[in-house]
Amino acid sequence: MQITSKFTAAVHILTCIEVFGGEMRVTSDFLSGSTGVNAVIVRNVLGQLREAGIVETRQGSGGAHLAKPTSEITLYDVYRAVECTDDTGLFRFHENPNSKCPVGRNIHKVMDGRLEAAQAALENELKLTTLAEVVADTKKIIEEE
Amino acid sequence: MQITSKFTAAVHILTCIEVFGGEMRVTSDFLSGSTGVNAVIVRNVLGQLREAGIVETRQGSGGAHLAKPTSEITLYDVYRAVECTDDTGLFRFHENPNSKCPVGRNIHKVMDGRLEAAQAALENELKLTTLAEVVADTKKIIEEE
DNA sequence: AAAGTTGTAACATTGTTTGTTTCAACTTTC
DNA sequence: GAAAGTTGAAACAAACAATGTTACAACTTT
Q1: Is residue A85 pLDDT above 70, yes or no?
Q2: How far apart are CA A8 and CA A92, in angstroms?
Q3: A40-67 per-position pLDDT tens digit
Q4: What residues have CB less than 8 Å from A75, skipping those under 6 apart?
Q5: Chain B: nearest CA to A7, how far in angstroms?
Q6: Structure confidence by residue, pLDDT tens digits, B28-80
Q7: Residue B69, CB, strand C, below 7 Å
Q8: Residue-by-residue DSSP string for chain B
Q9: CB-closest option in A5, A97, A107 to B94
Q10: pLDDT > 80? residue A84
Q11: Cα–Cα 20 to 30 A to A17, which of A47, B23, B69, B91?
Q12: Cα separations in angstroms, B121 against A67, A127, B125, B133
C-alpha cells in the first residue's frame, strides 16, 4: 500500500511551473515530458491543483501558472489537492467487526482517535515544507551540477 | 489510497487474544467471527505476527498466544509486521522522471528526505501506543457498557 | 483412528491506479 | 474566419493490489 504517485508528480509539476514559467509556456505536454507521466494524467492533476486554488490554467492559450506565492504552498496543500486520502482517512478499517463480540463492537472507539493522531502527525510534517523550499533546493542543485 | 485493513484487523486480533485468551482457545475461526475477516486472512495475519515475534501459534492444537507482554507491543510493531509499506516506503514516486530535464533528474534528491521525514512522523506516533493501552481502553469500555 | 486446527498454495473477485483514445471547447495567430 | 495548438473531460483499457475462497497436507489432541 502506497500513497499515489500523483502526489510526487504534482510537486514535480509545480516545481517545473516555477522554474520554467519565466522563460517558456509550461504546457501539459511539456510537463508530461519532464515527469514521464501521461499528459492526460498531468491535466487531471493540474485540474485538482486548480480546484484547490494552487494553479491557474486556461483552455486554448495553454500554460499553467501558480495562483499564489511558492511560500504559501505547502506539501500538505498539494497532498490534499490530489486527494491522497478519501473522507475516511489514511487508515482503512476491516469492514464488518462483529457487534456481538465485546471487542468487535468497541474496536472503533478505541482505535479511531489513535489512527487520526498518526495521520495528523504525517500531515503536520508535510505542512512544514513549502514549495519555496523545494524550488530553492532544486535550483541550488542545478547550479552545482 | 489507504493503509491495508490488515493493520486494524491485526490490532483487533491481538486485543481478542489478550481479552479472551484466559478463558478459551482463541482460534482463527473465532477471530474470523469477531473481526468479520476471512479465516484464511486471519491465519495469514497471524503468520505475519508470528514471524515478527508478536504471537505464537501451533498447528493442530490451535489457539494463538502473545509472545511477549502487551506493554512491549506497540502499534508500530504491528504496522511493520503486516507490511503496510514495502521497502520503497509509504510514498510512491512517479517512475520515469526525465533525466534530461534539470527538475526531472533532481526531484528525487529534493523530495526523498522530506518524504522519509513525513513517514517517520507517522511511525513515531504509532510507537507511542502499546497494545496494553488498547486492551485497557477496551476492557474499560466493556465494563461501562 | 477421528476430529479439529494451522499453514499454504492456487485461484477468483473486487477495487484502485495509471494509461489511452477521443473529441468538444477554447485561444491565439495568420 | 480558418488553422494550429491547447485544455477539460468522458469513456474505456490495462495493470496492479487487496481481499475472499477453495482445497488440502501437516499437525495435535482425544
Answers
A1: no
A2: 22
A3: 999 999 999 999 999 999 898 888 999 9
A4: A11, A126, A127, A129, A130, A131, A134, B114, B118
A5: 8
A6: 999 999 999 999 999 999 999 999 999 999 998 888 999 999 999 999 999 99
A7: no
A8: --B-THHHHHHHHHHHHHHHTTTS---HHHHHHHH-S-HHHHHHHHHHHHHTTSEE--TTT---EESS-GGG-BHHHHHHHTTSS-TT-SB---S---TTSTTTTTHHHHHHHHHHHHHHHHHHHHHT-BHHHHHHHHHHHHHH-
A9: A5
A10: no
A11: B91
A12: 29, 12, 6, 20
pLDDT at B131 over 90: yes
Query: The cell 473465532 sits on which residue?
Result: B30
Q: Which nucleotides of C are covered by protein (CB under 7 A)?
A: 3-10, 16-22, 25-28
> What is the percent of chain B where pLDDT is above 90?
86
Instruction: Tell me if A7 and B84 make a contact (CB, 8 A cut-off).
Output: no
Average pLDDT, chain B: 93
Residue A133, all three cell numbers: 523550499
Q: Which residue of A1, A27, A41, A90 is the best one to mutate when testing the B interface, meaning the one whose CB has the most B CBs within 10 A?
A: A1
Q: How many CB pairs under 8 A join A and B?
A: 193
Radius of gyration of chain A (CA): 19
Confidence bin at A95 (pLDDT 50/70/90): confident
